[in-house]
Amino acid sequence: MNYKLLFFVAILFLAACSNGEGEIQSSIDELEKKLEETNDPQVAESLVEQYKVYIKTHPEDMETNSRYLYRAGSIMFRMNRYSGATDYFSKAIRDYYPAETTPKASLFLGMLYDEQLRNPEAAITIFQGMLQAFPQFEELEKAKAKIPADTPPIAERLENMRVKMFNDSTQRIEYRIANDYINSCQLHAMVLPEDPQSPVLLHKAGEVARSIRAFNKALEIYNWIYTKYPNYEKAPQALFLQAFTLDNDLKKYDEAKVLYEEFLKKYPNDDFADDTKFLLENLGKDDEEIINSFSGEQEKEAGE
């Protein structure tokens, strides 16, 4: 074996990787300087795209990725693209929680909900969570000042929202309250990921999302539970509900099949295992086809 040749190839590979990383970083530095000078929307768009390239190619660089997502959110905010800003700040908090930027991103997100999106419930959830999550944050007083003096504790607030979702007089779900509840449960889990109540609230939010037919939101929440809280007692159920939602509600049978099979492989003795086997065997069949298959089996057994 030619070890000198292998060593030379390795050096070239490392140099190429280093050059690629240097090019991305150089492009970001140049675009940041240009944006500061011109405030050009096209430059802003290009810069955000370069941030995304860096994050994709350096998933392990927690501090830099968090900082770039925070900057991307700030750029979207300056361009009055508040939905985009919300997404970037949320991703910075949720995906890179231990990073130093997280308290700042949480404060910015709370202010955004409060002042631009006019969603006080979401804002207060973030601010209350920050009091528990970041007690040493130097700008915590800004969050405190935004919480009305008579505001109940966060757990009580969320439970009040859940109870008020169903209108007794009309016998209907109040969709605005339901959506506020779902969003606040997610924000609570985002700002306080280690709180034992976070997976519990997420599970309740997933149930509400399914009840109002917000199926993609339900999938997002169940996946969050399953991936972030694998030791939570209802993590297996969250995986099952992902598969069931894909199967029963969205008719995405191929995707459902993969998750049903994963469930059976990982939780063969779970209470939902028999249900999963039945659903997997009858995937894509309508009620009539399932009934007919039962009839056929019964006739076969009678003939024997």
How many structural units, i.e. domains?
A: 3
CATH topology of the largest domain: Serine Threonine Protein Phosphatase 5, Tetratricopeptide repeat
Structure annotation, total helices: 15
Assign the CATH architecture of the largest domain.
Alpha Horseshoe
Strand order of the largest sheet: 1-2
Any overview of this molecule?
The chain is built from 15 helices and two strands. It is mostly helical and 304 residues long. It has three domains: 29-149, Alpha Horseshoe (Serine Threonine Protein Phosphatase 5, Tetratricopeptide repeat); 152-232, no CATH class; 235-286, no CATH class. A two-stranded antiparallel sheet has the order 1-2. Helix 3 packs antiparallel against helix 4.
Features:
304 residues, mainly alpha
Q: How is the topology of this model organized?
A:
Layout: H1 3-38, H2 41-57, H3 62-78, H4 82-95, H5 102-116, H6 120-133, H7 140-145, H8 154-164, E1 166-167, E2 172-173, H9 175-191, H10 197-211, H11 215-228, H12 235-249, H13 253-266, H14 273-281, H15 287-303
Antiparallel strand pairs: 1-2
